[in-house]
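User: quick one, fold this
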Amino acid sequence: METTKQQFNISLIFSFIWLGFICAISFMEAWLKFEADGVTLPIGLSIGKVVFTWLNRVEWMFALIIFFNFFISNHNLNYSKALFIIVLVSLTLQSVWIFPLLEKRADLIISGQEVQRSFYHLFYIIIEFIKAISLLLLGIKILKLHNHGN
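Assistant:
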């Protein structure tokens, strides 16, 4: 019983920490850095590339922690597993499809080249909202299951 409580606690904690990272970086830092004096578009994009590369790596670490702590429990967590799968699919889409495309566009802009308008950034934001909402619902569901078990 104690192991299961720890598994719930770890999944719960990392779901909300992950959500906090998304809110702080994607929904604040990403656009606020351009408000600072002297931050040009190329400088802001260069900073963004570093920040989002590391955010992506940290997100995969959180995903692995939740996976190994959440999926090994013996509880019936089908709804929670479905939410976690949505998070994983979202993260995978961002990592292997949208993020590389945005990184290439950023590299072109940083090097002074013109780029055509695209919807990739909008897709990234939409997927980020889906991931954030899914993490919020996942954390709430785990919390409810944890409290129900006490």
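User: anything notable?
Assistant: The chain has a mean pLDDT of 90.
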